Amino acid sequence: MSRGRESTTLLVGGTVLADPESDAVTADVLVRGGVIDRVGDLSRERADETIDCTGRWILPGFIDAHSHADGTVFSRAVQEANLRQGVTTVITGQDGVGFAPGSGAYATEYFGSLNGTHPTYTGGGVAELLAGYDAATALNVGYLVPAGTVRHEVVGDEARPATSDELAEMAALVEVGMREGALGLSTGLDYVPGIFATTAELTALAAPVARHDGVHVSHMRGGYEHASGDGIAELQTIAEASGVRTHVSHFHGPAQLVRRLVDEANDRIELTFDAYPYRRGFTLLAMPVLPPALLALGTSHVVATLTDSRSRAALLDSWAAVVAARPDMGPNWAEHATIAHAGSEQYTWTGGMTLAEAAGREARDPLELAMLILAASGLQTTAVIANPRQREIGELAEVFRHPRHVAGSDGIHLGSHPHPRAWGTFARFLARHVRDRGDLSLGEAVAHLSTTAAETMRLGARGRIRTGWIADLAIVDVAEVADHADYARPRTLATGIDDVLVGGVPVLRAGALTGATPGTGIRRSQDMKHEGGTR
């Protein structure tokens, strides 16, 4: 190949579904220099590489609207887990906690068991963080300015409102992050210090996001389920005062409630949400088993309390009944909480065991064992949680069918027994909810898995197959696609998607990684131009 000539890849014989509004057509796709050059009968065309797509569908690459691959995306195993599901872009900086701005120490300490550690970022801001993803991974990475990280940088973890000067400094950090290409703002209103932010503070931080046409992505305050109404009401107040577009993270709950709240909110603001097709959840173990007031005092204080035998005994005596009475836990909660990542060598043996099983082995109270594991790990312990009332698949489908829904795995790749959603979400949508149950047509699935997320996150020329658009493409055998990860074997790869292009470069070929790393840190301002103007 001559120096300077743009490389070409030709996809032949596939069925192209360009976007949710288009009819499927049998066609070839020529990719040149990272973008889609032509679609049609290209039987006489020659290219540097040809991929036979006969019997398969050529779809826009999928976008994971809620990912915790911030620090793990450089791992080949994490790239493979995503690409084998057709995912070409992950959106990070979720739940108000991320590496930038600042040194990254706060995110590493607090969310290390979720986001991992970043191998190259040592400080700075969004620009430095995004640059670290360029040509360093097979996946594209979008980033949200995390409001909790911003608050930690300016106010620390103090349980108080920000002063006017502090608020101005925080808003300035958000403004800089947006100028450097962030997609929006994320808030985690059950985490420290995001839990201390007032609605007025969040509105002030959302204002620069709105000016840049970014999106406010929120883990709502006070839990979900039947408390979701209050959370949506707060987000609506923020949106109406600031003008920001709004997206709700991992919005699971009773189908009728979720659909009603989303519909009512969209009468007044622009709101989307993500959800994944699993009946169990995943959490930092400290969240459901320790008092929020204790967690608000910070990691070092919590660890000291749990380490001291008298303090721990007093906490056990006062808190055990509260945990058992929680609607998301129940009296048999220890049988439904499985250790995903113990975070301490002392307790690695608990991985994959329920707390009831592990406590039985130790002849110890399950809540006390949970406290000991948390103390030993510096709270870096995660668990898969089976809700006492597990919804039927049909009820989940009612949530997914809502037109404002997009797919988000909430994927976490760390631990000996993580949640299988990181390995199976997108394949399960296609296999169960498109092919097997017919809850969604394939065109509707393209909207939920790609197009709507691209538009919501303002990813520019992604999410559709059009001339001149970025060639992030998944080649899917719809008859064979399947997820295989389960709670016993959560790291099992999906099948049925063997070829994927990112930025026009084959990154998955015949089911194996090619070793190419064309992924980029997506800058909102960089990738906005495409046919029809700016989005």
TrEMBL record:
<keyword id="KW-0378">Hydrolase</keyword>
<feature type="region of interest" description="Disordered">
    <location>
        <begin position="516"/>
        <end position="535"/>
    </location>
</feature>
<dbReference type="GO" id="GO:0016810">
    <property type="term" value="F:hydrolase activity, acting on carbon-nitrogen (but not peptide) bonds"/>
</dbReference>
<dbReference type="Pfam" id="PF07969">
    <property type="entry name" value="Amidohydro_3"/>
</dbReference>
<feature type="compositionally biased region" description="Basic and acidic residues">
    <location>
        <begin position="524"/>
        <end position="535"/>
    </location>
</feature>
<dbReference type="InterPro" id="IPR032466">
    <property type="entry name" value="Metal_Hydrolase"/>
</dbReference>
<dbReference type="InterPro" id="IPR050378">
    <property type="entry name" value="Metallo-dep_Hydrolases_sf"/>
</dbReference>
<dbReference type="InterPro" id="IPR013108">
    <property type="entry name" value="Amidohydro_3"/>
</dbReference>
<feature type="domain" description="Amidohydrolase 3">
    <location>
        <begin position="49"/>
        <end position="507"/>
    </location>
</feature>
<protein>
    <submittedName>
        <fullName>Amidohydrolase family protein</fullName>
    </submittedName>
</protein>
<dbReference type="InterPro" id="IPR011059">
    <property type="entry name" value="Metal-dep_hydrolase_composite"/>
</dbReference>
